[in-house]
Design goal:
4 helices, 10 strands, Thrombin, subunit H, alpha+beta, disordered C terminus, two-stranded antiparallel sheet, 16% helix, extended
Length: 225
C-alpha cells in the first residue's frame, strides 16, 4: 500500500512540472518604456526580460494597446534588443520584512543598497496591500513628541498621521529629518527620497542608521529649538 502511495505522490509531482513556458518578445524600446507582444499580461503583473548576455531584467506591465503590452523596467534597459524574450511571473513580488531592516538602506523592491549583506527576514509583505476601511482605522487622537519644540507646540503631529515635508532648497529639510524623531523611543525609522547628492549621507543617513542598529536613546537637541 505504501508503494502505491509513493507512486501516486510521484505522479502528482510530475503533473505540477510545466511542460512548456509561455514567452513573448520585445518589439520596441522608447526611452524606458518597453513594448512586447505574444505574452498577455495584466496591468501590475511582473515579468522578466532576457537580455543579450542572458541576464534577466525585472519589469512590470503598466498598460496595453490591443495586442501590445507596455512594460516599465525596474533597472536600466541595457543589453536589450528586438526579439528579446519576455517571461511572465505568476507570483507577485512579495517583500520580506523583519527586524533586520533596522538601520539598513533598501530600494523599492526591498533589496539592500548599502552593501552590508542580505536581509534575513521571514515575514512577507505584498507590494500592494489591501486598502483599509477608513471607518475601521484608529483615529488620530494622541500627540506625537518629535523632539522639536516648535513643531510640538505650533504644528502638533498625532500618532498615525501622515506628514509631508516640502520646502525650497537649502532651508534645512535634511537637518530637520535628522532632528525629527521621538526622544523617548529606542527605535526609529526614517524614509527619504533624494535625487541630488550624497553629501548629506554623513550628516543624516548614517546617524539614523546607527540609531536603528544599536537602538541608542535619542539625544535631545539644544534648547534653541
Amino acid at each position: 500500500m505504501s508503494d502505491f502511495s509513493a507512486f501516486d505522490n510521484a505522479l502528482r509531482s510530475l503533473e505540477s512540472i510545466p511542460l512548456a513556458r509561455v514567452a513573448g518578445r520585445l518589439v520596441r524600446l522608447n526611452g524606458i518604456l518597453l513594448e512586447s507582444v505574444g505574452c498577455p499580461l495584466m496591468t501590475g503583473q511582473l515579468c522578466r526580460i532576457e537580455s543579450a548576455n542572458h541576464t534577466l531584467i525585472d519589469a512590470q506591465a503598466v498598460g496595453f494597446n490591443r495586442d501590445i503590452t507596455y512594460l516599465m523596467p525596474f533597472k536600466q534597459p541595457v543589453g536589450l534588443m528586438a526579439g528579446a524574450r519576455v517571461f511572465p511571473e505568476e507570483k507577485a513580488h512579495d517583500i520580506l520584512i523583519g527586524e533586520s531592516w533596522l538601520g539598513r538602506v533598501v530600494n523599492g523592491l526591498g533589496e539592500p543598497l548599502d552593501g552590508k549583506g542580505r536581509l534575513n527576514c521571514n515575514d512577507l509583505l505584498p507590494p500592494l496591500p489591501p486598502s483599509v476601511n477608513p471607518l475601521t482605522r484608529r483615529s488620530v487622537d494622541e500627540p506625537l513628541d518629535v523632539g522639536v519644540k516648535a513643531i510640538n507646540g505650533l504644528l502638533t503631529i498625532g500618532k498615525g498621521q501622515r506628514v509631508g515635508l516640502m520646502a525650497g532648497s537649502g532651508v534645512g529639510k535634511s537637518v530637520l529629518l535628522g532632528d525629527d524623531h521621538p526622544p523617548d523611543q529606542s527605535r526609529h525609522c526614517g524614509g527619504r527620497v533624494d535625487w541630488r547628492t550624497r553629501a548629506r549621507s554623513k550628516r543624516v543617513y548614517r546617524p539614523l542608521a546607527g540609531r536603528g542598529r544599536a537602538g541608542k536613546v535619542y539625544r535631545r537637541r539644544r534648547a534653541r529649538r
